[in-house]
Amino acid sequence: MPTGVALRDARERLFAAAERILLRDGPNALTSRAVTTEAGCAKGVLHRHFADFDAFLAELVRDRIARLDVQAAALRESAGTGTVVGNLAAALDEVFGPLALRVLGLVVARDALRARLRATTPAGLPLLTEAGRMIGSYLRREREAGRIAEDADVDTLALTLIGAGHLLFMDREAAEPGPGDVRRMVGSVVAGVVREA
Hints:
Helix content is 67%, strand content 0%. The protein has one domain: Tetracycline Repressor, domain 2 (Orthogonal Bundle). The protein is elongated, with a radius of gyration of 19 Å. By secondary structure, it is mainly alpha-helical.
């Protein structure tokens, strides 16, 4: 590996390398050596930007959570358009995309990583907790618009959708759920509270 060469956007380059490894080889293959080799840089580059490998992984997960914030804003803006079931199914399909599932597997597998993430996600499972908040925020908007029953417990609905979605998608490589499967699950969960024509 070249040394002494300044890297532009080293952080993003390292994150992109880690994501490629996660997608190709899974969480167990993710090591500091694998990341720097994939990124085409010296191992010291990672340690120049992050205190240690767990700090790097924590920032990688926080970066994924920040991307979820963008999705959350778009989902909230979709309130009142399309159908509630369609909007939720599309959101869950994105939340449980292949990379997100690999990142989630990484979080579940590494106790030290979860401990570091407690600073920003004090309860629940990082990434899923934020996804649940995103869904809950959207459902509140739909409730305000009258498309969800006024007495609906949107926080419980959000957690139910995240839990059912995780189970549906968790073995995505072996059996990819189809759009009909996701819509059917979402429709079942929200059937009693949706007030659309």
